[in-house]
Amino acid sequence: MMEFVQSVAREAGALLLDYFGGLGSGDIAYKDIKDPVTAADRASQALIIERLQDRFPGDRIVAEEEGGVLGEGEAVWYIDPLDGTTNFVHGFPFFSVSIARVRGERIELGVVYNPVSDDLFAAESGGGAFRNGEPMSVSDVSDPLRALVATGFACVRSNRVPDTVPFFDGIVREVQGIRRPGSAALDLAFTASGVFDGFWELNLNRWDLAAGLLLVQEAGGKMSDFAGGNEIFSRREVIAGNPAIHAYLAGRIETIAGELGWDLA
């Protein structure tokens, strides 16, 4: 199964590269005022769904774009055919394909593929995490002043409160750096591989999260929702990282939220 899913991710990534840099105005629409969808999103999703339906006809599929909820099976495939569409539209070369298989609350398999760098991150439950076939693990950085962390602003785009801006403001002075690359799936993959020491974000969907969460778990990292629990999917929020930086981020987010009167429970 893993070999097959990796091949599908690579095929979808190659398709995205065919579109990259060549979109016309007619290839871009908006799901809301700041949320683009492109012909590349739709084509990648159609390809992935076709491959999965052929191979796993009894499984359910939940993909990001319109028409992407299919089947009634116990096993569910969560697909983001192009995570980082805004980057893609603007020609910024940081985007990914994310595919995960989930049964109940257990993420069985996850693949995140960056077609620009040809980096493929993969994990199976209980089987470890790999980057281009080599085992990977979270970093051992414990001092926030030496930590590179990442976040995203999906919550700001959707006008959600609480949003991540106060957390960014409270953390940026205490870490070595913060990055906002624009693909949550890749942010989690880079956290799993030790490039980032931690990551947090609000207002994410299962197709953004599922594959990356398994990567972090299998790479020895820790993850939680903002309240410190395991309701990441239902609350649509995540704090992830190596154990030390996860604890730091969780503590700072709790403190900042308290100062603002935001109830994270």
Textual characterization of the structure:
The chain has helices at residues 2-19, 39-55, 85-90, 154-157, 165-171, 184-192, 206-218, 232-235, 243-260, and strands at residues 28-32, 35-38, 60-63, 69-70, 75-83, 96-103, 106-114, 119-124, 129-131, 134-135, 148-151, 177-179, 198-202, 222-224, 237-241. By secondary structure, the chain is α+β, with helices and mostly antiparallel strands. The chain has two domains: 2-135, Fructose-1,6-Bisphosphatase, subunit A, domain 1 (Fructose-1,6-Bisphosphatase, Chain A, domain 1); 144-260, 3-Layer(aba) Sandwich (D-Maltodextrin-Binding Protein, domain 2). The strands form three sheets. Strands 4-3-5-6-7-8-9-10 form an eight-stranded mixed sheet, with helices on both faces. Helix 1 runs antiparallel to helix 2, helix 5 packs across helix 9 (243-260) and helix 6 runs parallel beside helix 7 (206-218). It is globular and about 50 Å long.
Q: What are the defining features of this structure?
A:
265 residues, alpha+beta, Fructose-1,6-Bisphosphatase, Chain A, domain 1, D-Maltodextrin-Binding Protein, domain 2, 2 domains, eight-stranded mixed beta sheet, five-stranded mixed beta sheet, 9 helices
What does the secondary structure layout of this molecule look like, with pairings?
Layout: H1 2-19, E1 28-32, E2 35-38, H2 39-55, E3 60-63, E4 69-70, E5 75-83, H3 85-90, E6 96-103, E7 106-114, E8 119-124, E9 129-131, E10 134-135, E11 148-151, H4 154-157, H5 165-171, E12 177-179, H6 184-192, E13 198-202, H7 206-218, E14 222-224, H8 232-235, E15 237-241, H9 243-260
Parallel strand pairs: 3-5, 11-12, 11-13
Antiparallel strand pairs: 1-2, 3-4, 5-6, 6-7, 7-8, 8-9, 9-10, 13-15, 14-15
Helix pairs in contact: 1-2, 5-9, 6-7
